[in-house]
Every structure is written in structure tokens, then in C-alpha cells.
Amino acid sequence: MPITRVQVVAPTSTGDPADDATNTLYFNTGALDAPTGADLVAGIKAFYEEIPMSGYQALNGVWYVKCYNAQAAKPNYPYFEDSFQLTRGVSANWLPPQLSIVLSYFNTTETTVPRARRRGRCYLPWLAAGYLDTQGRVSTTTRDAIWDGVDAMNTAVADSGIHVIYSGVRDEFSFIDEYRLDNSVDVIRRRKTPATLTWTHPFPTP
Prior knowledge:
This protein is an alpha+beta fold and 206 residues long. It has one domain. Helix content is 20%, strand content 33%.
């Protein structure tokens, strides 16, 4: 099955592209066409709808999604593009954009494959103030919301594809066994406060 690379770009209210939050996810899809792309976009939206981001930032920003054939030769152009606005958000100020939660995902069973090719990550910015605990760490409420987003995304894309980990260098993919989230917040991709707890969430069963 072909691999679709999904690029998600969420512009900030500053209008400066340098402040955009960008994530790339990969899906093993049955086809590379508009219906597939539409399902993937629906899944991406379902995921972000659950994340406790500031209502102002989430609801006033336009989210852009591009779907590419990850295995195509360059120049590579998207086979599907779309945009959306979120309909849900938290009524709270947002924390500085330098802060983000990192959602990681792993394949834990293919032990003959190097670990670096069996993991991926997604950065979740614009955290709503009050959704960290009193120690400045990720709260269990936020954790549960992220798990809900993971489940919502995988349910929405189930008819067209499955979220996977992909290595473009070797053109290989691995199925995701579990998602991981620890209770530390990253600051510009640098961990300032050591995590004291890591939570895991199994890949949802259809």
C-alpha cells in the first residue's frame, strides 16, 4: 500500500511564517486520491479538536493540510490539499508559543529494526493556561484529552488508512504499537524540566 505524508501547518495570529507550527504524519493508505485525502484531513481535524489549546488561537487560525505520495520522486507535489478551522477550543489564554507537549509513538515489536526507525513524534503547541498542573507539568486532564484525540484520529481515517512510522531513507514503514506522553513540557524542543512520569496508550483497535 502507498504511504501518504501529511503536512499540517497551523499559522499563528502573528502572520509570520516563522511562527507556524508544523507537524508531519505518515499513513499507510489504500489509494492516493481525493477521498483518501479528505478522510486524512478529517482525522487530523478530529485529533486537534481534542487538544486543550487556547480557544483564541485554535478558533481564529486556519489550519492547512497537504497530502503527498511519500514514495514519489522529486519534485513531489501534493495530491490533495485542504484547510479547516477548529470548532472547539478552551476559553483561556495560551502559554508562550515556545512551549509544547511532545506526543511520541513507537513500534515495540520489530526488535531487529533500529529504534530510531521505530519512533515518531508530534509537537502540540498553544497550550491553554491552566492545563498544566500546579508543578508546571502535563496534567492527567490534558493527557486524557490527547488520548481522546489519538483515538478520534485513528477512527476517522480507518476506512482509508492507518497511522504509521515511515523511514524515507529505506522506504520502510512500521506499525505503531503505542503512543507515549510524559509529564514534562518542552521549551523550543529542549527539555528544561525532567519528566517524572511517562504514560502509554495502545494503538486503538478498530
